[in-house]
């Protein structure tokens, strides 16, 4: 009977040891699973944060592009208005000079006086037209430079961004 009691005790001890080992394996497995899930969640959060950063950067870049186009458009419209004012002023001055020239020409006393006035008037008109043309050309060039400046700056930013990795 002692033998049977020893066997029962040995079986109980073995069962308890097996249960303890099974419990430890379950706890270790749960700990490993929890750690794996936590790492996966961290990676998912980081990936989501990175994607949000890229999206925010894209929105900010687009906003900068829109601002550049708006500035370029405003500069262009303002410049064209200035150019139009200068052109109208030039034509008004030319018209006034032509009227004055006709008045003066109608009051000349001789053909020589008319020819002299006409030569002087033509020379003065040509010089004024050349000067006005140069001024208009300079204004048009300034309009083009001012209008393209914000867009050129955005192109520089775009090129810089293209040189950097996305996650940077």
Keywords:
168 residues, mainly alpha, 2 helices, 93% helix, 0% strand, Phasin family protein, Phasin
Report, as a whole number of angstroms, the end-to-end distance: 78 Å
The largest β sheet comes out as: none
Spell out the helices and strands N to C: HH
Given as residue ranges, the uncertain stretches (5+ residues, pLDDT < 50) are none
Secondary-structure-derived class:
mainly alpha
Overview of this structure, please?
- Residues 57-155 form the Phasin domain.
- This is Phasin family protein.
- Residues 1-24 are annotated as: Disordered.
- InterPro entries: Phasin, Phasin_subfam-1.
- By secondary structure, the protein is an all-alpha fold.
- It has one domain (10-162).
- The chain is built from two helices and no strands.
- It has helices at 2-106, 111-162.
- It is rod-shaped.
- The two termini are 78 Å apart.
- The relative contact order is 0.08.
SSE inventory with pairings:
Blueprint: H1 2-106, H2 111-162
In short:
With 168 residues, the chain is mostly helical.
């Amino acid at each position: 009977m002692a033998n049977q009691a020893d066997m029962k005790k040995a079986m109980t001890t073995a069962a308890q040891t097996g249960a303890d080992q099974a419990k430890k394996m379950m706890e270790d497995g749960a700990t490993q699973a929890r750690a794996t899930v936590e790492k996966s969640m961290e990676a998912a959060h980081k990936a989501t944060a990175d994607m949000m950063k890229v999206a925010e950067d894209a929105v900010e870049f687009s906003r900068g592009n829109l601002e550049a186009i708006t500035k370029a458009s405003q500069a262009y419209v303002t410049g064209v208005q200035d150019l139009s004012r200068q052109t109208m002023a030039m034509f008004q001055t030319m018209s006034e000079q032509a009227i004055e020239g006709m008045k003066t020409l109608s009051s000349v006393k001789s053909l020589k006086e008319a020819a002299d006035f006409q030569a002087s008037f033509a020379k003065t008109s040509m010089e004024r037209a050349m000067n006005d043309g140069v001024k208009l050309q300079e204004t048009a060039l300034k309009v083009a430079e001012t209008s393209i400046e914000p867009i050129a700056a955005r192109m520089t930013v775009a090129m810089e961004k293209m040189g950097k990795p996305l996650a940077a």
